[in-house]
Amino acid sequence: MVKIIVNGVQREVQAPDDTPLLYVLRNDLQLSGPQFGCGLAQCGACSVLVEGKEVRSCVTLVSTVANQEITTLEGLPARWAKLKGLSPDQAKDILHPVQQAWIAEQTPLCGFCQSGMMIVATELLESNPNPTVAQIKGAFTTSGPSPHLCRCGSYTAIIDAVKHAAVIMARGGK
Amino acid sequence: MAIANEAQLSVYRATLSRRQFVKSGGALVVGVAFVGPSLLKAQGFQAPKVTGAPFKNSLDPTQLSSWIEIHPDNTVLIRTGKSDFGQGSTFTAYRQIVADELSVSFEAITTVVAGHTDQTPDGSGAFDFLGRGTPNIRKAAAYTYQALLDLASERLKVPKDQLTAKDGVFSGGGKSIAYGDLVKDQQLKLTIPVSGDLTGIMGLTVEGNPPMKPVSAYTVIGKSHPNSIITSKVTAKETWATDIRLPGMLHGRMVHPKTLGSTLVSVGQLDKSKFPNSQVVVKGNLVGVVAPTEWEAIQASQQVASATKWTDWKGLPGNEKLYDSLRKEADWTTAPVMKSDANKGDVPAALASARKKFSATYHFPFMKHAPIGPTIAVADVKPDGAVHIHTHNQNPQALRGEIATMLGTTPDHVIVHTHPGAGHYGRSNGGNSGAEDDAVILSQAVGKPVRVQWMRAEDLQWSTQSPAAFADVEFALDEKGRIAGYQIDHYMPAFQDDRPIGAILAGLPTMPAPGGGGSGFTSSTANFLGDPWSYDLVPNVAERGHGTFQVGQKASPLAVGLRDHSMRTPGQYQQNYPRELAFSEAAALAGADPIQFRIDHAKEERLINVLKQVRDASGWSTRPSPSSGAKFVGSTPVRGRGVSAMFRSGTHWACVCEIAVTPSTGAIAVEKYTIAVDPGIVVNPAQLKRQVEGGAMMGISHALYEEAMFDESGITSRDWNTYPIAKMTDTPEIKVVLINNPKVGSYGGGSEAANALAAPAIAAALHDATGKVLRRLPLKRAYVQALLKS
């Protein structure tokens, strides 16, 4: 049995220690954000934050993240609420600025890779609140074990959304 | 139920029937009346009569079935067989089109039903959403409006021509009534005529000619209404196909053969000590493993695979010999030679007498559709023979027919639910995406619901691909530098193999392989001409299409080989690339600017306009290629630009690519990409812009990187390193020029074409920058480097 903290809640999972985190999140905890794209850490569809750092959950064994804080797409609103010190009531209906921007810019096409893309965007903006286009391209291409791949070609829309999210964050989330 | 009266009313070719004074509720529902006996003809299934028994598990053609429902609370529901694969049209354009035809607000259309074979009427695939201006849903809405108008006129006692409609309310003669009040406490059924084949690739088509709203009356079309499914995906509220879990469901993984022609020698023994809950299923050459958890299924299938023995097979030419083998060994004589409608004049005479002559061959590789997530399906084969399939499939009704054929049953036993998932770009538009038939076979074997997801390597190695092609071009210039004669011979293997691979491996019935006697254009080996000729002022033109069987199919004991499937801009891509690159070469030979050269050979005003718009928007300087600074040596990047154009689905396109190429490495960077698109009426500008950007980026990916690698036994591209696609750092500055052209009177398609425009434009830009032409895709480093050293 492994204890992990997912989106702020401690969970005990029965899956064997060598189970990749992705299958635990999807099947044991029934989260739909991270997706199976390649199982090889080559695409980023499965990305989650572990202690604020993007990891590929498809190659991360669940036992290696025991007792660590994991954030999936589902946990982005609460992550923002915590960062801004909002009360549970204030936090009820909010979305993370990254999600707001992804909707405002109508970014996803098929959307299968976009959970991973929003995870990278969150990681980037938490450390660099006003990235240049070159820094955005770098974050999505060279910061992890592989580039984050979008087969539909939404890269321009992602760049637009990251810039937009930076503006929303600078305004305090509105 | 008290029925005060029944009445029937003819609305163009539709029939409105009514029962008044139902106890509560009421609605106007739009159903279908089938014309002709062709429904389900492919599977030999008897068409239901309009007055006969309902077709089980389909929308009932006589009682309920629905395209559109008008509810007493003034809300509207629409149903479509076309499911969303990222185009967004069902949630934006379809609502906008229906809203304008019905004169209701966008927001009044509260429900869009799509993707379920038992809840949607028309079948067909997730392509050509705008139906060259008249998608089924538009006609259904037009009929509905006429029925509502009749009802309002009768109720208000005001002649129809004195009534106007706005926001779901008819007004005239000092009176008004809301649509909801017209339908309240009544059962109203509008039966509209349709024809076609529900489980065929094109599905059903709404017939008749109801009056349509004039373009000048549009108030919803033309606005950038947001796509509702984007919100549910971004907020993790969507149920994806990957999220479907049925009670008692097992996870399945396949053990695919060693090669595309291997047969099973012996199945590996499952290590029960490690995988106590797993089970191996074998049927013919199909091997699968099921387990209660996904991780056990993956590990157990890998263990079984390592111990399973297959025969060897070497029946493919391999990448290096592909084009040689295609030209010299393929059978190009069985399929009829296709000839273009644009053919005219005497090309041989023009070639013989002209001043400058040119001939060249252009090569187009196999490409993978390469969805970012592999194929996935959950199947539940019930003891009574009912089959439920949850999947992500571009043509669920066609899949239904294929599964029925495989099981030797009729489509009414099969229900398909398609849920959101990774884009397929045409791979499943003929009905199966890979995992569905596997899941059905495994579920039937173990008597439980089974979820099958392929691994990354399987999705690249066992799926279909976009067919390779080559084209021979000859043209001649006259003394004024104009094209005197042009001919092109296109060669391409069959482009659409819709046989489910699991059924083939299991030895179960499928439709025939392409060229094997099946009916319909997708069963043919003919190479149809799909790239409408754009240069009307060329006096002598000959375009021919030559088709053949799929590579390796006949040699494979499994009849598999390199199975092909249409991919975004199918066929036209393979034909437009050589044509447009050759046109840029013709301009260079004539010493002319390549955009002006195209304009000088065109008559169509919309084409000329997109060329001028893309020229202006890109800051193009008029001059011939290659550029005066062209260089093919050195480690300093040299720059060039190229152009391409296309007409597809009622839409004119032109693009300009500006590149930097480093001769010493062969690396090409696309720095700026400008594209002009005239679809006629722009339905949703923001959505169209995103579609075009995505298509442009996919095209850059195709042009720079993509080639399915294979050896003599099978596909060797197995992951994103061996099948690289574009990454964010490959993104140029993309400029999209949308040309709203209402006088065209209809709306064209925006999700295809853009992906095909980059390759000929980048190839022309390489010529502009270096003076050398690479007549082969992709324009990857090794090929460019070799060209520049030659």
Main sheet makeup of chain B: 8 strands, mixed
Largest interface: A-B, 58 and 58 residues
Number of domains of chain B: 3
Low-confidence stretches of chain A: none
Written description of the protein model:
The complex is a heterodimer of chains A (174) and B (790). Helices cover 37% and strands 12% of the residues of chain A. With 174 residues, chain A is an alpha+beta fold. Chain A has a five-stranded mixed sheet with strand order 2-1-5-3-4, sandwiched between helices. In chain A, helix 3 (97-104) crosses helix 6 (155-170). In chain B, helix 13 runs antiparallel to helix 14 (605-618) and helix 15 (685-705) crosses helix 16 (754-770). Chain B folds into three domains: 6-234, 2-Layer Sandwich (Aldehyde Oxidoreductase, domain 4); 241-313 and 375-453, 2-Layer Sandwich (Aldehyde Oxidoreductase, domain 4); 580-789, Aldehyde Oxidoreductase, domain 4, CATH 3.30.365.10. Chain B has 17 helices and 31 strands. Chain B is globular. Chain B is an alpha+beta fold and 790 residues long. The interface between A and B is large, with 58 and 58 residues.
Quick structural overview:
Chain A is 37% helix and 12% strand.
Tags for this model:
heterodimer; A: 174 residues; alpha+beta; Ubiquitin-like (UB roll); DNA polymerase, domain 1; 5-stranded mixed sheet; 6 helices; 5 strands; globular; B: 790 residues; Aldehyde Oxidoreductase, domain 4; 3 domains; 8-stranded mixed sheet; 7-stranded mixed sheet; 25% helix; 24% strand
Element layout with pairings:
The complex is a heterodimer of chains A (174) and B (790).
Chain A: E1 2-6, E2 9-13, H1 21-28, E3 47-50, E4 53-56, E5 69-71, H2 76-84, H3 97-104, H4 114-127, H5 133-141, H6 155-170
Parallel strand pairs in A: 1-5
Antiparallel strand pairs in A: 1-2, 3-4, 3-5
Helix pairs in contact in A: 3-6
Chain B: E1 6-11, E2 14-20, E3 27-34, E4 68-70, E5 76-80, H1 93-102, E6 109-114, H2 136-156, E7 164-166, E8 169-172, E9 175-178, H3 179-183, E10 186-196, E11 204-206, H4 228-234, E12 250-255, E13 264-266, E14 279-283, E15 286-291, H5 294-307, E16 309-310, H6 322-329, E17 338-339, H7 347-353, E18 356-364, E19 367-368, E20 376-381, E21 387-391, H8 396-407, E22 414-418, H9 435-446, E23 450-453, H10 456-461, E24 465-466, E25 469-477, E26 483-493, H11 501-506, E27 541-548, H12 572-590, H13 594-600, H14 605-618, E28 638-648, E29 651-662, E30 667-678, H15 685-705, E31 733-738, H16 754-770, H17 781-789
Parallel strand pairs in B: 3-10, 5-6, 12-23, 21-22, 26-27, 30-31
Antiparallel strand pairs in B: 1-2, 2-10, 3-4, 4-5, 7-8, 8-9, 10-11, 12-15, 13-16, 14-15, 17-27, 18-25, 19-24, 20-21, 20-23, 25-26, 28-29, 29-30
